[in-house]
C-alpha cells in the first residue's frame, strides 16, 4: 500500500458513550470489509493512526490488541500491524458460529432474508447477464425433471436445489457482500430447511415458487421478481415455524 493512500483510509471518529478503542476496532473492521485494506496490508503506525482517527495512542494500542485476539490483525515486533491473511468469509463464519441455532434465530434470519432477497431478485432482473438468468432457469427445470424420475433421495435433491438456487441468485447480483451474507445465512438455516422440506409437498412447492421468480427474471420485471421472492420467503417461513412447533 502506498504512503499517499494512507491518509484516505481513516477519518476522525465521532465520540460517543461507546469505548473509544471499540470505535477504533469498528473503523478498522469497516476498512477491511469495504476492501480499503486487504490481507497483508500494513496498518499505519500507531501515532499516525491515532492522528487520523483523532484518538490517543493508548486507544489505538488497545484496539490492535483486540483485533489481534480476533485474528483480524497480526502484530509483528519491529514491523507493525498487518491485516491477517484470512479470507473475509472466515470472519463471517466466526460470527455465525456464535449464533445459537434456535427458533428465534431462524425467525430473525427470515426477517433479514425478507429485506435482502427481494431486492436481490430485483437487482438480478435489472442487471444480471442473460447467462446468469438462464442458469437459474436451468436449475429449476433440471430439478423438476429429476423429481419426476426419483422415488428416493428427493429430500436431499430438494435441499440441495433450494440452497443452490438462493446462493446462485445472490451471486448473479454481482454484490460480493450479499453473497457472503447469504452463504452464512443458508448454513445457519440448514436444519430448519430440512425440517420444512420434510413436510409433504413443501419441497415441490418451493421449486414451483422458484419457477415464478425465474419467470419474472426472464421478463426483466424487477417488481414482480421482488414480489415473487417475498411471497416465497413468507410461505417458507410459515412452514418452518410449523415444523418447529411439531418438534
TrEMBL record:
PROSITE patterns: HTH_GNTR (PS50949)
Keyword entries, A-Z: DNA-binding, Transcription, Transcription regulation
Name of one Pfam family that matches: FCD
InterPro entries xref list: GntR_C, TF_FadR/GntR_C, Tscrpt_reg_HTH_GntR, WH-like_DNA-bd_sf, WH_DNA-bd_sf
HTH gntR-type domain residues: 18-86
GO molecular function: DNA binding; DNA-binding transcription factor activity
Superkingdom, natural source: Bacteria
Family matches, as PANTHER family: TRANSCRIPTIONAL REGULATOR, GNTR FAMILY, UXU OPERON TRANSCRIPTIONAL REGULATOR
Protein name: HTH-type transcriptional regulator LutR
Phylogenetic placement of the source organism: Bacteria, Bacillati, Bacillota, Clostridia, Neomoorellales
Gene: lutR_3
Amino acid at each position: 500500500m502506498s504512503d499517499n493512500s494512507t491518509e484516505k483510509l481513516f477519518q476522525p471518529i465521532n465520540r460517543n458513550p461507546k469505548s473509544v478503542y471499540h470505535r477504533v476496532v469498528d473503523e478498522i473492521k469497516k476498512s477491511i470489509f469495504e476492501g480499503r485494506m486487504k490481507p497483508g496490508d500494513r496498518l499505519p503506525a500507531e501515532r499516525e493512526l491515532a492522528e487520523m482517527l483523532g484518538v490517543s495512542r493508548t486507544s489505538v494500542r488497545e484496539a490492535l490488541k483486540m483485533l489481534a485476539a480476533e485474528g483480524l490483525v497480526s502484530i509483528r515486533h519491529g514491523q507493525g500491524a498487518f491485516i491477517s491473511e484470512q479470507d473475509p468469509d472466515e470472519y463471517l463464519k466466526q460470527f455465525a458460529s456464535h449464533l445459537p441455532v434456535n427458533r428465534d434465530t431462524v425467525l430473525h434470519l427470515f426477517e433479514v432474508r425478507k429485506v435482502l432477497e427481494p431486492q436481490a431478485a430485483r437487482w438480478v432482473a435489472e442487471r444480471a447477464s442473460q447467462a446468469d438468468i438462464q442458469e437459474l432457469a436451468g436449475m429449476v427445470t433440471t430439478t423438476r425433471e429429476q423429481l419426476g424420475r426419483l422415488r428416493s433421495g428427493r429430500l436431499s435433491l430438494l435441499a440441495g436445489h433450494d440452497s443452490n438456487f438462493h446462493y446462485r441468485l445472490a451471486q448473479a447480483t454481482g454484490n460480493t457482500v450479499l453473497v457472503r451474507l447469504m452463504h452464512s445465512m443458508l448454513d445457519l438455516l440448514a436444519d430448519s430447511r430440512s425440517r420444512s422440506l420434510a413436510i409433504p409437498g413443501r419441497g415441490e412447492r418451493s421449486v414451483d415458487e422458484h419457477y415464478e421468480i425465474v419467470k419474472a427474471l426472464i421478463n426483466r420485471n424487477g417488481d414482480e421478481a421482488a414480489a415473487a421472492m417475498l411471497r416465497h420467503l413468507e410461505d417458507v417461513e410459515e412452514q418452518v415455524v410449523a415444523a418447529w412447533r411439531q418438534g
